[in-house]
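DM between two lab members

TW: hey, do you still have the Transmembrane 9 superfamily member entry open?
JB: yeah, one sec
JB: this one, 624 aa:
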Amino acid sequence: MQAPVLLLIAFLGATQAFYIPGIAPVEFSKDDHVEVKAVKLTSVKTQLPYEYYSMPFCTPEKGFEYKAENLGEILKGDRIVNTPYVLKAGRDEKCRKLCEVPLQPEQATMLTDRIHNKYTVHLMADNLPVATKFKMLGTGETQYELGYRLGYELKDKAQLFVHNHLKFIVSYNLDEHQMYRIVGFEVEPSSIKASQVSFDRSSGVDRCVFKEEAGSRLEPQQVTNTLDKVVYTYEVVWRPSKVPWSSRWDIYLTMQDFQIHWFSIINSIVIIFFLAGVVTMIMVRTLRRDIAKYNRDDDLEETLEETGWKLVHGDVFRPPRRARLLIALLGSGVQLFMMFLSTICLAALGMLSPASRGSLMTAATFFYVFSGLVSGYFSARMYKTMKGVQWKSAALLTGLLLPAIVLGTGFFINFFVWAKASSGAVPFGTMVALLALWLCVSVPLVMAGSFFGFRKQPYEHPVRTNQIPRAVPDQKWYSNVLISILITGILPFGAVFIELFFILTAIWEKQFYYLFGFLLAVFIILIISCAQISVVMTYFQLCSEDYHWWWRSFIISGGCAFYVLVYSIFYFVTKLSLTDFVSVILYFGYSMLMVIVFWIFTGTVGFYASYWFVRRIYGAIKID
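TW: and the structure you got?
JB:
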């Protein structure tokens, strides 16, 4: 039954990936003013976003008007502000002068540096990002790129040119009341040297008059350290379109190949069936035979000599060492599970669309904070089951451990980003707000959940624990934890690595990720595969008379995080070409946080699967 359900989830997510519910279309009357807003400047070579007006662009006459942003937008480095571009609904605008910006030497140097680092300018109109259309080499297929390049570089001549002329192409359709709805926003950037254009004010505005000769192209505007000014111009073309308003995000969301996602799902299902076969063989054949033998009184002595997992029944539920640390990790894992499940399900239903900027990150943050109640409950009850008594310190460690690592690392990285004057630096007020959410909401909720969880009865164990621990015999070389991680971690990672590639691409190459139906299917596959591999390894461990399964089940099932780390390094080497030391710190800092989160989450899944398995098998046999 697993495969049809997962395929159904993936299909629903794929079909709903382009539906943006809950956002009513904005309609414009003829000649209504359509605001063009600037979001930020980004580069895949530096990973450091900057505010739009950190560059010498034309400024609006009425001054800067920054949009109030949510938590997700701030964390992403968005700083949405108005621009001087004038777009009137349904009215074409021939080439006109926007402004003439004098350049100081340091501004010319900065412009040169950012063009060399391939910075992209992100604008939007009616909440729709501007896109640049281009054709794929070889296939001639039309593709779109978010934003437009600040300029371009001729490598053979080592020359840099700035895009100082923009041709906006606004696609629209009309409703029954002849109101305009914007369904597309494209730009064609070009570079025009100041000496190649003059301006005619006879119409009341500065219209462009190009000085191109017959059969020749306009000379582009080269950027040098001695460039004294840049002349910015633009034009607007309105085109009718048959694209419905509900599908206007399609060009951004079809940047990913669906066939690869389907291949990922099928590949993951094959892995699940393989693991399910192994688990079935253990549960149905081996365990059923062993339990049947154990439950025969006359074969008891012979059975005890043949196998080992029943021999440790008096120690299998002996509380582990460093129980509080394990409980803190398990509580954090439960909190992450609740956050992932809630966010992905909500996104798969189409409620966290890219049109709602920053909503995904904002929702994930609040889901994590308010999942502290569930985290505290389950961690405290498990702590009581492990015969722990200091529940307050265990609860405090649960509430502080993972957020302290995440916020501490983020604060450390933030120092370097601040030094670069990047908009990616989290403002001080936002840092205070995050600390307040953590210390004033999340931690108290974990403490409250722990209070109620510790008042509950501990989980019942089917066998008693002996007072004197049994000696663990020498283990085989392949039972080593590191070797087990290398062997078992590859299977869950193989189920998710294709989706991981698209997630990394969305994060580091500034693309939209919106195939949350596929992600939900892969999320379920990851949970199942981690649970299955943990059960298998715990069974083998108990058969070798090693009853220290508590920590081992957590560490081994979280072993796929090691492969996530390796893949992150591989992705850095093969896909990115970061040129700045701060960018490298940024990448590896956040990659390490991703690996830690992945390890805690998958480890928690494996631990609870093993705990259920151990209780089940020892509850099925007779113990004298």
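TW: got it. The radius of gyration is 30 Å. The longest helix spans residues 581-619.
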